[in-house]
Amino acid sequence: MKKLLTLPNVLHLWLFCVIANSYVAIVAQPLLLLAIVPAFLFLNVLAGIWEPETDSKRLKFCHHGGVLLFLFAASLIPSVIYHIVLASVTWDGQIKTFIFSALFCICAEAIVFWNGILCVYCTSRQMGVKWRVIGALCGMIPVVNFVVLRKLLRMTMDEVTEANVQEETT
What we know:
Elements lengths: L6 H14 L2 H6 L4 H14 L10 H33 L5 H29 L4 H11 L5 H26 L1
Helix pairs in contact: 1-3, 1-4, 4-5, 4-7, 6-7
């Protein structure tokens, strides 16, 4: 996981937390969408794509998927805390705001997760069929899904690191 705690990834994490939890701000100031939408697209398309110094597009996409999965997992705690606080300060007339904020956050998290998991599943060679099936089967089991996600993330990032070391030695 240390390979994922780089300055660009921490900045991407901060940006994603702001984006995923920005529904209330967007309702108050709709022009924020002009900044939020391009930032979200940037994050989904380019997060982590330049970090591995390799010519292999496969490894770049594998790393990109790993970064997105890291962003997904690391942003869940701030998002849950934000929505607990939001739920505690909303009153009966604003419950709709809380519900739409939660749905907005869930959709943003889901897009980043699926983008990441598809990149990793399509580009990782070390993961194998076994771990792909385990990941798919355990995806809906709370707690177990995060244990499996951590394993897949570690496997993917190790693959990128090992391939980079092999490229440097040859």
